[in-house]
Amino acid sequence: MELSMSSRMLLAVMLMWLVPLARSAQCPCKDAKDCDYHTRDSHPNKEVFVFNKGTTSVSRWHWKSFTALIAPADFDINQKDQASTMCITHGNDRKFGISVKMDLTGSLNSSDEKAGEWLSSAVQRQREWHADILNVDLVPYFLSDVNSTKEDHSQLALILKKLRDSLNKNTSHIIEVSCMAPWKPPCAETSNTCDFSWISMDACDYFVLNGDSFLDVGGDVCRAGATIPLPKLYYGMNEYQAHQVPLNRMILGVPWHGFDYTCSSFGNDVCTAEKNDQEDSSNGKCDFKKKFVSFGDIMANYNEEYRLREYNDMDNAPFFNYKDNATQHQVWFEDAASLKSKYRLVVELKLRGVAVMYGDDLVSLTTPETLVNDGVMWSWVAHGVLLETAHKPEKTDLHTADTVAGVGVGCLLLGVFLGVLFTCLATKKRVKKPKPAFHRDGGGMDDFVDEDPDL
Ligand SMILES: *[C@@H]1O[C@H](CO)[C@@H](O)[C@H](O)[C@H]1NC(C)=O
Ligand SMILES: *[C@@H]1O[C@H](CO)[C@@H](O)[C@H](O)[C@H]1NC(C)=O
Ligand SMILES: *[C@@H]1O[C@H](CO)[C@@H](O)[C@H](O)[C@H]1NC(C)=O
Ligand SMILES: *[C@@H]1O[C@H](CO)[C@@H](O)[C@H](O)[C@H]1NC(C)=O
What we know:
The protein is of the alpha/beta class. 37% of the residues lie in helices and 16% in strands. It has two domains: 2-391, Alpha-Beta Barrel (TIM Barrel), CATH 3.20.20; 392-455, no CATH class. The chain contains 16 helices and 15 strands. The N and C termini lie far apart (58 Å). The site of one 2-acetamido-2-deoxy-beta-D-glucopyranose (NAG) has 2 residues, from loops.
């Protein structure tokens, strides 16, 4: 028994170190230069990540409008078309990121064998993908490990810190670690079971708040809602800030898709579902049978319903209801107005940037041709504006001559929505807006919460 254990360990160790060394020399790109790490950081203060979920047709993307492509955890470097996304990204002078799942469960120990294996497989993955960013998806861990303790979380922080150190050993380039986190820390509010300060200081360069996590983490009532309900978003960010994650490391995950919810009861526009009995992390805690729909799917399949959509001003998102035979459905999605409000938030709160989820949403087969066409496809989302404004020194008045010129050109080139956003950002400084309630200096929300915890 002992012998077989140790020989298995030996094999694991050999695989861990031999495989990456053998593979790291290989470059899957036609032009070997495309395997070089990204060097020029043209937007050091703002990031626009675009996640892909499986598509490999990325060459027509508008590469100037974002800073990094993040490939999914199931991509395999040995699949030529998947590997080509890295070559195309570097060829376009953008950062390439590859994802890994934090799939350790149970009580964590940063120096045990399980953690060691996870660590070397993550490093191996970064090396073989020649990735500038390693995106660690922490959501599965926090979703499945409902009983994780403060001790687990500090071990998790140690594992991530070790990961960052090993990634940056033996390279002259800085490999960044991006941590994909749920919308609020698991230790939010009254529960005092975790400590993010180590993660924040030592382990993660970025915190990507996963835009799809709002319905599945926490919450006792299964009620369909906006993919990103703004009040929850503010609350989650405020909690992260209280756990030492600064706003300028947060990247807001913004969905380009929506969800079609099946309601088990429905009335007054409120669609509810039963709770799942088994805590299955892949389906969430609510039995909504929720179906992923891209904006293109909605335009193609629900044109009439889309025309009759309503807008929820609190969540800042559009929705519509429809009946499929006797079954009631509610569809929540994002449009130009709801996305604009999120991009504006990123600027106003000085977050590090946005992560578009997912680039695939606008290249699905059912996407109408008008959305796929160059320019139009990428302009209605207008995320590129973040990079435009990032060029300007922070304190300058955005409403300058060049901005006006930019507005003109932007409108002409990229269409109405982008123009509207440009104008919005340009006039933002002139219209005196109240500070967000939970702004660090303002402290409004903290006081508010303290005084009236039951609200
Ligand atoms: C963690 O693992 C190491 C090595 O297996 C062991 O020596 C140590 O006691 C463990 N720590 C805890 C808290 O279990
Ligand atoms: C979490 O803790 C609760 C209460 O102690 C227990 O009933 C449940 O089985 C635990 N869940 C897991 C996955 O360990
Ligand atoms: C890292 O570099 C050192 C010295 O150049 C070398 O001895 C070591 O094998 C390298 N490690 C890896 C994992 O490449
Ligand atoms: C709805 O009813 C029609 C006709 O009875 C049937 O063809 C269709 O499959 C049904 N749709 C669903 C989703 O059950």
